[in-house]
Design brief:
elongated
Length: 72
């Protein structure tokens, strides 16, 4: 995976999260929780990217999307 793919993935996940947020009426506490988890996700993606672990990188992205969708 190249650096530009990594940044594109982060932008895509942000857009997907925004879509989920705008399609739901999340309260402020839920938004804070999602934001905190997003920070952890980005750190995790940076870590897996640096070590070239594409499997774990994709796994963390998928799990985060499920995490956000479970707030419905």
């Amino acid at each position: 995976m190249q650096m530009n793919e990594h940044y594109e993935n982060i932008q895509k996940i942000q857009k997907l999260i925004e879509k989920e947020i705008f399609n739901n009426n999340f309260d402020i506490n839920t938004l804070k929780t999602i934001n905190a988890q997003m920070t952890i996700l980005i750190d995790s993606l940076n870590f897996w990217f640096a070590y070239g672990n594409d499997f774990r990188y994709k796994y963390d992205l998928e799990k985060f999307l499920l995490f956000v969708r479970n707030f419905k």
